[in-house]
Write a structure and sequence with these properties.
The protein is an all-alpha fold. The chain folds into 2 domains: 138 residues, no CATH class; 85 residues. Helices cover 78% and strands 0% of the residues. It is built from 13 helices and no strands. α2 runs parallel beside α4. The two termini are 46 Å apart.
């Protein structure tokens, strides 16, 4: 099993090395262009240097793309529950050299997702924090997905302040449907833990429709939390309707074992 600290250390080292290589190639190309008008007969040398830099860039880019494909395979393995294959793919991606920082950050993110799936919340949080410290571009989506994963891991660790800080940063961002669904799951769980019952039922119709798109366990838990909010705010029509929907989805004993606060819904 890959240590979170070791993975972070490897990624940081490779990010630094990749930056050095990129800047060295750029400097070599600029120097080759500048030396041609200044030195007689330097044209052939300059062209040779440019071709050499271009060839090296293509080779390293190909290796980086291969590492990116290997890292991407791990997400499929995680979704299928094949954690050993995912671990192997991520380890291979972390060990390979890449001149593109996105490959290493994506490998760390996938390792965080794997640790999250394994309920290793502390490791998942550390890896997500390492990714966010590198400030990935928001356009890539890696910032949002890592922040959502971090918020969920911190929620499991009981760090409610950390959850709030990460959720606030997500509210003003444009999310994909998948990200919005994940945000709903974390948000409802967080609000229930701080007993913010009223906000949990804002736009309740929309939230119920979104919950229907979630995997069974997450859907049942989210709707059960809304049923608990309805009970605590005196909206008994919603309470009864949501509770019955949850009972159709999942064994409520399993759900209450996962979130003990929900046992209040089925008290005699």
């Amino acid at each position: 099993m890959i240590s979170a600290q070791l993975a972070i250390s490897k990624a940081r080292r490779d990010l630094t090395l990749g930056a050095i290589v990129r800047w060295a190639m750029i400097a070599a190309a600029v120097a080759a262009l500048m030396m041609q008008p200044l030195i007689d007969g330097a044209g052939v040398i300059g062209v040779s240097i440019l071709f050499g830099v271009g060839a090296l860039w293509m080779v390293l880019s190909f290796r980086s793309m291969r590492g990116s494909r290997v890292a991407a395979d791990s997400s499929t393995f995680i979704a299928a529950g094949q954690f050993e294959l995912a671990e192997r793919s991520i380890a291979e991606a972390l060990d390979s050299f890449s001149i593109f920082r996105s490959v290493k950050l994506l490998s760390l993110h996938h390792l965080a997702a794997l640790r999250h799936a394994q309920n290793r919340w502390q490791d998942s949080a550390l890896l997500c924090q390492a990714v966010l410290m590198q400030k990935p571009r928001t356009t890539s989506g890696l910032d949002r997905s890592s922040r959502l994963l971090l918020a969920d891991s911190l929620l499991e660790l009981g760090d409610l302040r950390g959850v709030h800080e990460n959720l606030v940063r997500l509210y003003n961002q444009r999310l994909t449907l998948r990200e919005a669904l994940n945000l709903l799951v974390v948000q409802q769980d967080y609000l229930a833990r701080i007993s913010a019952w009223e906000p949990m039922l804002w736009q309740v119709n929309t939230k119920v429709q979104m919950a229907e798109l979630l995997p069974t366990l997450q859907s049942a838990r989210t709707q059960a939390l809304m049923a608990l909010a309805a009970k605590n705010t005196g909206r008994l029509d919603w309470f009864d309707w949501l509770r019955k929907r949850v009972e159709l989805l999942i064994d409520v004993q399993h759900l209450c074992a996962d979130r003990p606060m929900l046992s209040e819904l089925w008290k005699q």
